[in-house]
Specification:
The protein is built from eleven helices and eleven strands. By secondary structure, it is of the alpha/beta class.
């Protein structure tokens, strides 16, 4: 009886799969659900090999059209089972945390033959530092790496060499940073999940910053990292030749990453921004500030170790 309740729970949460699967095939799909939920395998392993097991378990002469829906059904049910297992470990929360590492930039100002994020420092690719932080953080469930396709193979090699098992997707970046962020956002399926967007050019991220961002997301839908400005900042004229004003430095902060969002919040901000003909690309948190004015963007204080590598001299810090 308990198994039947569990199957119904998972099954009815997959409305799209149900809609596409007519009632005529419902008994086949219920059998598949039982197979998935009764598997003794780890849920993620279950996703990988359940398709053939479920298909083969069905009676002969099964309708061929069922195969059209089977892959989606298996993925949905298996992923929901995985979320359920994760929720039990977390005391009931099914919200996933996805970390995005933006690594699609050319890094031309550093003056290397390859993008700076793939340069080796002390025998280790720079990108591996942030990936290691994500891999070791207990609350991060999966990682999306955004890069130019020419470097996909190298990323897979780094993933294998260092055991970065949380890397779930490697996707193509855009021509500008904001497009790379957007590609990562649309690669996320659940608007209720939490999303961290981090620059690979900031390799020395601390777990404390991630923890503080997650604390903010318990109270709001967007948060960013920043440190107090230490230099006086001028506002110049259009020709950058004359000082127009001097803002109060006590109110100024220098932005860092990661920036954290509910997926649905940053998705909505991007939707409005890309529909705006006057949109000027900025960082992701600024999109929420401009296009979702009712949303609060909280600030987490960063640290000097979370610096951005921009020039050759930064590699020696």
């Amino acid at each position: 009886m308990q198994d039947e309740k569990i199957v119904k729970l998972y099954w009815y949460r997959n409305e799209q799969a149900i809609t596409e699967t007519s009632e005529k095939y419902g008994h086949y799909c219920t059998k598949i659900a039982y197979n998935i939920l009764s598997s003794n395998e780890d849920a993620q392993e279950c996703v990988n090999d359940t398709y053939m097991n479920a298909w083969n378990s069905l009676p002969p002469h099964k309708p061929s059209i069922l195969s059209t829906f089977l892959g989606k059904i298996v993925r949905n049910l298996s992923f929901n089972r995985y979320k359920h297992e994760r929720a039990l470990k977390r005391g009931g929360s099914e919200t996933a945390l996805v970390a995005v590492l933006l690594a699609a930039g050319s890094g031309s100002r550093v003056g290397l033959k390859i993008p700076k994020q793939f340069a080796e420092i002390n025998g280790k690719p720079l990108i591996a530092n942030a990936l290691e932080t994500f891999q070791n953080h207990s609350r991060i469930d999966s990682v999306i790496v955004v890069a130019q396709p020419d470097y996909f193979t190298l990323i897979e090699e780094i993933k294998s060499k260092y055991g970065f098992t949380k890397i779930d997707k490697v996707i193509a970046g855009g021509s500008e940073r904001y497009l790379s962020s957007y590609n990562a956002v649309i690669a996320c399926s659940d608007d209720n999940d939490n999303l961290l967007i981090h620059d690979a050019a900031r390799p020395y991220l601390s777990e404390r910053i991630i923890d503080d961002l997650l604390t903010c997301l318990e109270e709001c839908n967007a948060a960013t990292v920043a440190v107090p400005a230490t230099d006086t900042v001028y506002v110049a004229d259009a020709g950058l030749s004359r000082v127009v004003s001097v803002p109060d430095r006590r109110l100024l902060m220098n932005a860092q990453t990661p920036q954290a969002f509910k997926v649905g919040t940053i998705r909505a901000a991007f939707s409005k921004a890309l529909a705006d003909s006057s949109f000027v690309p900025t960082d992701d948190a600024s999109l929420v500030l401009r296009y979702l004015p009712d949303e609060v963007v909280r600030i987490v204080v960063g640290d000097s170790g979370n610096f951005k590598i921009t020039y050759q001299s930064d590699l020696e810090r």
